[in-house]
Structures are given as C-alpha cells and as structure tokens.
Design brief:
This protein is of the alpha+beta class and 192 residues long. The chain is built from 5 helices and 13 strands. The termini are far apart.
Length: 192
C-alpha cells in the first residue's frame, strides 16, 4: 500500500495536521520535510546556554528545540535551537508551542551551526533573513567550528553588522542586561 504525503495549501491546514508522531516538520512549498535530530554536541551547547539563561528569564520564558516560529518565505516555519519568549507568549503558547506571524516576535533566538556549508548558509543567510523579517530584536549564531558567537541586533528594520565574539570576549545581551558569559567558558564547558 502506498502512503500519500499530505500537501498543505495554507499554514492553518498544516497546523491542524497531526500524524500521531513527535516528529518535527518544516513546511516547504506545501510539503512536510522532517527535521533531523541535532548532534549531541549541539544539544549539549544549547542545554548549557539554557542553564545560563534560566535564572535570568525563568523556566516559562525559555524554550528549546521544540518551539516553532511561523516565518515568511520557505520553509514556512523554523525550530530555533533556543528561544527567549516574551511574557505575553507564556499564555499565548499554552495550546500550541508556535509563535504565529500575528504575535509579537520572541526577544532572542539562538541557532547553533552544524558542520557543513549548507547548514552554515541556512543559519547565516536564510534564517537571519527570516528572523529579521519577523522583527526578532536579537539573534545569536553560535558557531562551534569557529568558536565564535555572532550577535545580530535590530535597531531598526534590518540587522546591522554582527558583533562577532571570540574566546577573548564576553557575551552579553541588550535584551537581557543581567546575562553575561565568557565565550571561552561557553565552548570549554561543553568540550569537557
């Protein structure tokens, strides 16, 4: 028996779909593309940042890999590695962990780059453009291969040039003024 793949004509149709699994999908040109699991290293790095951000924003306002963002363009949705949401999102996301285009954007989105040129371009170009379009005020790209963190801020409609931090720098956040970590500590904590 051949199983037909569902085709969606709107984001609402996609949101109503449930295949009974815990799989995450990106909606690309009306078709579902399964999102593969992250590497163990990237999950550990994300968890470490989660632990550092937890005392700053609290457990309700920090979301890991399963928060979905509706975006313009293709794919129509993204699953950031880590997201700090606004207070009003806590109530809005009780039913479904999806920030829609009609909602305010999250305060901070973090992506951790996987090895490879395609993954690098996705984080530095495609996702950057989509998060900028949403109005996400702060976007971090954590690059374990280069051991850098690029911080993009949105003073107006466009992200400016990123502040690229290396092992000699400290990561701070305009959105979260009490947050601070040494870049060297960020990477060495996970490598050990």
């Amino acid at each position: 028996m051949v199983q037909l793949k569902p085709r969606f004509h709107s984001f609402e149709e996609y949101l109503a779909y449930d295949d009974g699994s815990d799989n995450r999908y990106e909606l690309f040109n009306g078709e579902l593309i399964e999102v593969p699991p992250e590497s163990g290293f990237n999950v550990e790095l994300s968890n470490y940042l989660f632990a550092l951000l937890l005392p700053v924003v609290g457990y309700q306002r920090i979301r890991a890999h399963n928060l979905e963002l509706e975006v313009r363009g293709e794919p129509r949705n993204r699953y950031p590695d880590l997201t700090v949401i606004r207070e009003e999102h806590v109530t809005l996301l009780k039913r479904r962990n999806t920030i829609r285009l009609t909602m305010p954007p999250p305060l901070l989105v973090v992506e951790i780059v996987s090895p490879g040129e395609i993954q690098r371009n996705r984080d530095y170009v495609a996702k950057r453009t989509q998060y900028e379009d949403l109005g996400v005020p702060e976007y971090w790209i954590v690059n374990p291969q280069e051991q850098t963190v690029s911080v993009f801020t949105l003073p107006r409609e466009r992200y400016g040039e990123p502040q690229v931090l290396t092992d000699r720098d400290r990561l701070t956040s305009p959105q979260l003024p009490t947050f601070e970590v040494a870049i060297a500590d960020l990477f060495t904590a996970v490598e050990n």
